[in-house]
Amino acid sequence: MFFSRKKKILTAVTALILSASIFTGCGENKQQQAHQAPASQVKVMKVIQRNTPLISEYAGQFVGVEEVKVQSKVNGTVVDKFFKGGEYVEEGQLLFKIDSRQYESAVLRAKADLAQAESVLQQSLATYNNSVIDLQRDEQLFKEAAIAEQVVVTQAAQVRANEATCAANEAAIYAYQAALKTAQENLDDTVIYAPMSGKLGLDDVAIGTFVSTGNTTLVTIGSTDPIFVQFSISEAEYLKFITMQSNQTDRNPLKVTITLTDGKQYPYEGRIVETDRTLANNTGSLVMKAIFPNPGGALIPGMFARVQLSGETIPNAVLVPQRAVQQLLGKSFVMVVGKDNKSEARNVEFAQQVGSYYVVTSGVTPQDTVIIEGLTNLREGVDLAMTTVTPGEMGFTLVDVKSTYNTDSNLTAPLASPNSPSNLNR
Q: Judging by beta carbons within 10 Å of its beta carbon (0-12, 13-18, 19+), is residue 98 exposed, middle or buried?
């Protein structure tokens, strides 16, 4: 009985110790959990490696290659027109008719004046010929001593006078011919034709409008194919492009493309054909013009576009989003996903900026994953709760945008997914 009672006491003590041990263990576990920080919510993206073209983008506006203000060469009232505003016309197509009555009368007067002058000339020529015959006769009679020398001298003077009269009448003929030609040209100019093929504006005058020579614009007409895109670049960029050209055998190595305001890429490439001779004083920029085919006439002067210039490629460039790069004490670093999905800081060096990215020369490799969002107060060694995103989702682009339009809210050219074969190790 003693041993039985002793066994019960030992069993109770053991149970008490085990209970204390269990409660103590639970308390310690709860305390550890209370001190463990939650994982940081971040967005991450794989480092990209690809052949990277250096693309600069500028705000551009379409302007016509040729634009003509059609004006009348004569004064008069518009009595007819043979088109509708906005139409496409061919060179030589009839456009306007000016009241021609006064010009028809002027032609008739000029013809009458010319006919009268021709008649006078014929009479003077007959008189001259008769005087020449009389002089020849008098010279013969003088040789025969039948008349005095003074008669011959007088007749010779008359011949010279008649010759001068013929010359004056002949000059008058030329003047009247010129007057008739001018009158006929004025009459012809009352009918106005298209000086070139192109599209007409809507600024045409109405029938009944009195037009003045060189002052009144009847209508404007502009060519549609090809078409210019005008844009401005900085002095530094101009020098860079000049250097690129000097390093190329091609005289115009720059690739010129445009994106329209609806976000669509224009299917034809252009080329730079005109560069201003001086920088603008107020902006320090240089105006350039690139020419593009416009076979369908869809592009019209005044429209806007984004102009992309490219001509140099960085092979196998390692790209890190600018958003991932942080600065501290003159050093640049990024946070990457390290071992056990913990944050890890890496010092980086980069060569240049390309669109939304930096071209990194050291610090990360294409195998790394960088943190691009959630960097505020993020420390090294913190557990990460990651959401993987693509460049397209973030709106990242390789285009170096120099200027944009206030009306454009979606003018980005996103990259494809970083896992796309077209982007990786290309």
A: buried
